[in-house]
Amino acid sequence: MSVAPGDERDTLVLSMGPQHPSTHGVLRVMLKLDGETVVTAEPEIGYLHTGIEKQTENLFWQQAITVVDRADYLAPLSNSLCYVLAVERLLGIDNIPARAQVLRVMFAELTRIASHLVWLGTHAMDLGAQSIFMYAFEMRERILDIMEFVTGARMHQSWFRIGGLALDVPKGFLARIDDFIGRFPERLADMRRILEKNIIIMDRLIGVGKISAEEAIAWGLTGPILRASGVAYDIRKAFPYSGYETYDFEICTHAGGDCYSRFVVRLNEMHEAWRVIKQAREKFPGGPVVIDDRKIVPPPKTEIQHSMEALIHHFKLVSSGFNVEEGHVYQAVEGPRGEMGMYVTSAGGNKPWRVRWRPPSFYNLQALKRLAPGNLVADVVAIIGSLDPVFGEVDR
């Protein structure tokens, strides 16, 4: 932290950090203060630039999934879902098996809950409530255990593939998901009882970092931040994908437009995500988890052992991937932080020609310039926490 005189009388400039987990070397906020009141706030980004977009463009279409997973590292499966849907549209694939569709939805919603639990634990710590971090991370661990059991990885699972899934779920998966479905509502209710009506939490969040619906739209905000200003916009409802139109869930909104509204919206969204997972479990179908197209999906090993043609397909896919006809497409999904979109262009080769992201955190963070002025410097921590930024996607 450094302090310098401001360019106006009785103001000073404060380089803020690292009060929030996101400011540990990856975010700097230059605050101009008049006493304890914020006059201007200027977020500085670019400290975590990974070149993920360009890395993607130098890998085969299927290989690129391992890279896109790492942008929003709290929601890797949301990233890869967006990418595989975009490539499937370019390929004209519209026959993803029902079992794969249900599993994609189930794991996308597990990812949403896990991401919101990280936000809840860290945001509560920002506000001085430490024990809730343990509650949130204990439940997140259960989700990561399920992820590891199915995909072999706790993070960056790269489980969604163009044409379906990498593997089917192993025996014992349904018992684990049933256990989670049974436990989660009670644990969420516990956390809500501790925090939602807590006088300190309400005092720190109500009326802080307020933005109207019109301004939220003008700033390009999406996800829980936009919905907390009363705008019922959710990609899963507006432009359904992966069969979301067949699930019964509510778009969580709040009229306050402040930090507390964002807090309540995310709590409600965890409950709605749990409802979607429960419905996916109830309809859990049998059948394959990948399309039957040997030019896109590698043949099973049992087939390779007996078929020269299958062996050639496998060799071609591993050594040079597959080509995608020229074209471009914009695909969006509703990630935990809002509209995650990808503009993918193919020049007809075996690698993407361009993969341009529309990351929600990048847009949401810029609104700090609008949200912070007029609030106290101590409130800036709460405002940043209410935005729930992930810098892997801001600086992709």
Proportion in helices: 40-55%
Q: Trace the largest sheet across and list its strands.
A: 1-2-3-4
What percentage of the residues does DSSP assign to strands (E)?
5-15%
Look at the helices and sheets and give the structural class: alpha+beta
Q: What's the tally of helices? A: 17
Mean pLDDT level: 92
**Number of E-state strands:** 9
Overall geometric form: globular
Main features:
396 residues, four-stranded antiparallel sheet, 9 strands, single chain, alpha+beta, three-stranded antiparallel sheet
Structural overview:
This protein has helices spanning 52-56, 65-68, 76-91, 98-126, 131-151, 173-195, 199-205, 213-218, 223-227, 235-238, 259-282, 301-304, 308-320, 360-366, 368-371, 379-387, 391-394; strands at 2-5, 12-16, 28-34, 37-44, 160-161, 164-165, 327-335, 338-346, 354-358. By secondary structure, the protein is of the alpha+beta class. The strands form 3 sheets. A 4-stranded antiparallel beta sheet has the order 1-2-3-4. β8 and β9 form a beta hairpin.
